[in-house]
TrEMBL record:
Name listed for the protein in its UniProt record: Cation diffusion facilitator family transporter
Cell compartment(s), UniProt: Membrane
Organism of origin: Sphingomonas aurea
Domain (Cation efflux protein transmembrane) ranges: 19-223
UniProt similarity note: Belongs to the cation diffusion facilitator (CDF) transporter (TC 2.A.4) family.
PANTHER family: HUEL-CATION TRANSPORTER, PROTON-COUPLED ZINC ANTIPORTER SLC30A9, MITOCHONDRIAL
Main location: membrane
Domain of life the protein comes from: Bacteria
Pfam families: Cation_efflux, ZT_dimer
Residue stretches spanning the membrane: 12-36, 82-102, 122-143, 164-187, 199-217
Length: 314
């Protein structure tokens, strides 16, 4: 389990550091280009990259905080703190990235400023596309490796590691924003209407708002608490049901306490002929079997309980 956890952390950090270094450099270049040319869409893109840089720092901080060991106040550890910071990232994208882009675009439409030579904008956009594309490629490669044969959208919804899909969505939004900014700069000069650049800035803001809403929805589900993979739940149920001394499994309930940590609560009907000592031995055997097959199971609670026909929550 330790080796698996370390490998997952390394992969997440590669994605986050790759995105961070790309966004810092891109943000500086975009702000310089916006200052020299007066482009609203370039200014919006600069704020976009700046917010993305801050987001990667927050996710790295969240990962570090989430690795703290359990204590008396938090007996299941601090793993879900990463989910809190993922939610904060979504709010920042919406409030700062989308909000500033839309506001800047609106100002530029109301008070259009003549744009200067767009060459520097095209150069910066080209460099930004190259860097963002590299970061996006890393994020896609790592997420594809993690998802296996699972369809993309299903893998995103089922993922318990927000760092992987947040960077993927951020980089995708960044590439879309660069395309919109490029079109806005070109159209503004081609048709000699600076207001088009403001419209491009608003479009970038709308893209960011849509991405932020999607990320907030996914982060909220993780923060509230999501069950483990249904296949894991069914396998746990099958293993417990097949154990000698178990006559029925009432329910198997799971919750992720971290991306790589699952709490399992099992209610099962024990054979009435078992003695107390035999029951304890059976519980120990079940726990050992589950931990051997599922290293991500961090805590197991087995409750002897009479069989019930009540519907179970998985």
């Amino acid at each position: 389990m330790a080796n698996t956890s370390i490998a997952k952390t390394i992969r997440s950090n590669i994605v986050l550091f790759g995105a961070l270094f790309a966004n810092v450099g891109i943000a500086v270049a975009k702000f310089v280009a916006a200052a020299l040319t007066g482009s609203s869409s370039m200014l919006s893109e600069g704020f976009h990259s700046l917010v993305d840089s801050g987001n990667q720092i927050l996710l790295l901080y969240g990962q570090r905080r989430a690795k703290r060991p359990p204590d008396t106040r938090h007996p299941f550890g601090y793993g879900r703190e990463l989910y809190f910071w993922a939610f904060v990232v979504a709010i920042l994208i919406f409030a700062l990235g989308a909000g500033i882009s839309i506001y800047e675009g609106w100002l530029h439409i109301r008070n259009p400023e003549p744009l200067t030579d767009p060459t520097i904008n095209y150069v910066v956009l080209g460099i930004a596309a190259l860097l963002e594309g590299s970061s996006w490629t890393i994020a896609v490669r790592e997420f594809r490796s993690a998802k296996g044969d699972t369809p993309w959208w299903t893998a995103i919804k089922e993922s318990k590691d927000p760092a992987s899909f947040i960077v993927l969505f951020e980089d995708s939004a960044a590439l879309a924003g660069l395309a919109v900014a490029g079109i806005g700069v070109w159209a503004s000069h081609a048709w000699e209407d600076a207001r088009i650049d403001g419209v491009a800035s608003i479009v970038i803001g709308v893209i960011l708002a849509a991405v932020a809403t999607l990320l907030a929805r996914e982060a909220k589900g993780l923060l509230i608490g999501e069950r483990a993979d249904p296949r894991v739940v069914e396998r746990v149920r099958a293993l417990v049901a097949a154990s000698p001394g178990i006559t029925a499994v009432n329910h198997v309930r799971t919750i992720h306490t971290a991306p790589d940590a699952v709490f399992v609560a099992i209610s099962a009907d024990f054979d009435d002929a078992l003695t107390m000592g035999e029951g304890e031995t059976l519980v120990e055997r079940i726990e050992a079997q589950l931990r051997a097959e599922f290293p991500d199971i961090s805590s197991i609670y087995v409750r002897p309980e009479k069989a019930t026909d009540a519907p179970s929550i998985r």
